[in-house]
User: Which sequence fits this backbone?
C-alpha cells in the first residue's frame, strides 16, 4: 500500500519501534527454543526497556491505552506511524488470545508435548511477523499481515 504520503526516516524508525511490543509479548512462548538455541536470547536485548516499563503495576493497560489514544487516534501523527502502531497493538491482542489458549492447554493436564509444540509455533510465528513488519517499516512500506492489516486499515482513518 503506497497511496499515502512518503514516510520520512523518523516515521520509519517510530513505525519499526512499535513492533517491539508484540515481540515482548511473544517472548514468553520462546522459552524452550531459547534453551535449545541460546543465540535467540539476543532478542531480549532490545526489549529490556519494555520489560522495565512492564514491571510497574497496570503498565500493560496504560501502555495500550496510551498508544491507542495518543498515537493511533492522533491525526497530527503521520499515517505510517499510526498504521504500524495499530498493527502492533492488534498483534499484541492476538498474542494475548493465544496466551489464553495456552492457559487452557495447561489446565487440561499432561499435554506437555502439545504445549511445547504450540509455544514453539507461536514464538516462530510472532518472530517471523515482527521481523517482517520491522523490515517493511524500515523500508517505508506498509507491512501487509493477513487479517491483521485489514483490521488495522479499518481502525486507522
Assistant:
Amino acid at each position: 500500500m503506497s497511496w499515502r504520503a512518503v514516510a520520512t526516516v523518523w516515521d520509519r524508525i517510530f513505525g519499526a519501534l512499535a513492533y517491539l511490543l508484540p515481540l515482548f509479548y511473544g517472548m514468553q512462548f520462546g522459552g524452550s527454543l531459547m534453551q535449545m538455541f541460546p543465540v535467540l536470547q539476543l532478542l531480549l536485548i532490545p526489549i529490556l526497556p519494555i520489560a522495565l516499563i512492564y514491571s510497574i503495576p497496570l503498565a500493560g493497560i496504560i501502555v495500550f491505552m496510551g498508544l491507542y489514544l495518543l498515537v493511533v487516534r492522533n491525526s497530527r501523527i503521520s499515517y505510517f506511524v499510526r498504521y504500524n502502531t495499530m498493527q502492533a497493538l492488534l498483534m499484541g491482542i492476538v498474542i494475548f488470545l493465544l496466551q489464553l489458549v495456552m492457559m487452557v492447554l495447561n489446565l487440561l493436564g499432561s499435554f506437555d508435548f502439545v504445549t511445547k509444540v504450540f509455544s514453539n509455533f507461536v514464538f516462530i510465528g510472532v518472530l517471523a511477523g515482527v521481523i517482517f513488519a520491522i523490515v517493511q517499516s524500515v523500508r517505508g512500506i506498509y507491512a501487509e499481515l493477513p487479517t491483521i492489516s485489514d483490521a488495522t486499515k479499518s481502525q486507522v482513518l
